[in-house]
Amino acid sequence: MTEADNSLGKIYFFTNIRNLTGDKITHRWIYKDKVKAEINFNIKGKRWRVWSSKNLWHTWTGQWKVEVLNQHNQVLLTKIFKFGQKDG
After folding, report:
1. Where would I find the DUF2914 domain in this sequence (predicted)?
2. How far is Cα 6 from Cα 76, in angstroms, rounded to an integer?
3. Residue ranges per structural domain of the chain
4. pLDDT tens-digit profile of 13-66?
5. If you classify domain 3-84 with CATH, what class do you get?
6. Contact 39, 27 (CB under 8 A)
7. Which of 35, 87, 32 is nearest to 61 (CA)?
8. Residues 25, 52: contact at Cβ < 8 Å?
9. 10: pLDDT confidence band, cut at 50, 70 and 90?
């Protein structure tokens, strides 16, 4: 997903993790260069799926970023999406 309209109250982010058993990862939700949430996960298997969600105020429009970080705070993945008013 690259866009979501601001009538949605909650957004979900899913991550499929492979070969990081025993590590920890974090979903970091960022809006206007400010961290709005950090959700930590313990990886307990060779293939592990995790998800986090964020309640978004209808006024928090614009670009959002979700970063997936490893336990050393290194960014493994970044996804950017636009949250705003629905066209039409």
Report:
1. 23-82
2. 28
3. 3-84
4. 999 999 999 999 999 999 999 999 999 999 999 999 999 999 988 888 899 999
5. mainly beta
6. yes
7. 32
8. no
9. confident
**Nearest C-alpha neighbor of 14 from the set 23, 3, 25, 30:** 25
Place of tokens 């970023």: 65
Contacts of 59 by beta carbon, 8 Å cutoff, 6+ apart: 6
| Residues 10/58, Cβ–Cβ less than 8 Å | no
- E strand or H helix that includes residue 53: strand 47-55
**Residue 74 CA from chain centroid, whole number:** 15
Q: What is the pTM for the complete model shown?
A: 0.84
Cβ burial, residue 22 (10 Å; 0-12/13-18/19+): exposed
Angstrom distance (rounded) from CA 11 to CA 49: 17
